[in-house]
Amino acid sequence: MSTVFRLWLSILDVCRAIGLVKKESNSGEDEQLVSSGTITPAQEEDGEEIQDNSDNGDDGDDDDDNDNDNDNDEFLAKRFGTVLDISDDALIKLVLNIRAQHADSHRDSLELQSCSVISRLEGSYNRVHILQFADGIKYVIRVPCFGWGDRWTKEDAISLRSQALTMRYIKSNTALPLPEVYAYDATFENEIGAPYIGMSFVEGVAVDELWHDSREEIVVKEARKRRILDSIAIVMSELHLLSFDKFGALEFKDETAQDPEVGPNVILDEGSLGDEDYGLRHETELLGPFDTTQDYFHYCFHEATKEGRSKEKADLGIRKLLSMIVDCLPFSKRTHVPGATRETFVLSPPDFGPQNILVNENGEVTGIIDWDGVSTRPQWLGCSSYPLWLMRDWSVMYNWPAESEDSPEQLEEYRRYYAMRLEALMDERGGSRYTKKSDRFEAVMSAIDPSSLDSFAVDQIMTRVLPGGFIWGEGNLIERIAEDKLQDEEEAELRRKFEDFFQS
Fold first, then answer.
1. pLDDT by residue (tens digit) across 400-433?
2. How many helices (DSSP H) and strands (DSSP E) are in the chain?
3. DSSP string, 286-329
4. For the whole model, what pTM was predicted?
5. What is the C-alpha to C-alpha distance for residues 26 and 396, in angstroms, rounded to an integer?
6. Can the peptide bond before residue 401 be classed as cis, meaning omega within 30 degrees of 0?
């Protein structure tokens, strides 16, 4: 089971690193600077293919490259199936029909309603088609990678409808710059024979293309980084205007996308990184909704102790340690106090990464994209949390001192600045008081996922709680906790350290 909230490492992020993701395009214009509504096209140096011009003879590398291309094509074909076969004619017919339904009779005419497919892009979970009309307007048709044959489940259909209508709900009730959802269909009964979401095209540059731009002077780059964080804080403060009484995905009675109720999340199981069928397995189930965060924690601990789970001392120790950590979180005790204020939940971008935040040249947010799996989250995470790239030093992928990484000191400064800006905007309303600790709370949520028992996240927490004093070796703390060998005073001291770490 994938984590309820997000994955530190998504499937095609791994594949992209080895050259798997490919792009088809019928037009080069705008691709290097704009987003598709799901992912940002990869830039090519000076718009040209980069080739190896070395004159070292044939060393077999071409054969290896061809083999890799064949493997990549085979993987894409298995993952995306007939989604890759959707024709230009079918897409054009769909988009013409969508635009006709939304046409302004004073502006749109039949002469303008000719269009062409200008780009196709594969993301981790969707194939994106960009179409442009003769008048320059662009539409995006987003098709799930598993939207074909028996792979498409009833839970997938529920999730797609929830995503499309939640985007409409957010756009109509806040000032967030989301793509406009023109149409969606969770069935195969349409012009392209596949489920889709049709939306507006969002102009902008992804933050990950600007954050480490080596072409600019440090002073200029740092000033723009702060403008980006300022603008993101303004946008996220808007989401606190919407609050809910449960933890789950939104359900809507009709297409007006108003007055939602909170229903279950759709959980996707694609296996574990390293499995032979990772990225090809597709199993779904409904989870929740949960009335409180504690209910979710109880579910996690119940799943982690089911029959068939690992009985290794390390795993048992991690589960007991996480239970202790959860008890020490500042919001855990409140739910046990009679008469305490009922917990509320908020919406947030499900993948708050730099590739999904689009900005203009001044660093102002122009769009937030990729709302797959959007759901409510606890106040202490949600829109109060740091953007993911400000928490890179918590990730297994962190590679400082690489040029594409910020130093731990820089990340700490960016977090301090963002928390200050968000708190000033919200005047301590909602969950902004939790922002300064949200990197720690995110680590707990990653660690507690019952499918993984993320020992790396646990290690990151413990090395900060017990700097220089946490080891995994023989007779270590984890094993002693597993065997209930901690002395009372030792456990009391450890709990005190946890409380200081998460609450101060």
1. 999 889 999 999 999 999 999 999 888 755 567 8
2. 13, 16
3. EE--BSSHHHHHHHHHHHHTSTTS---HHHHHHHHHHHHHHHTS
4. 0.83
5. 38
6. yes
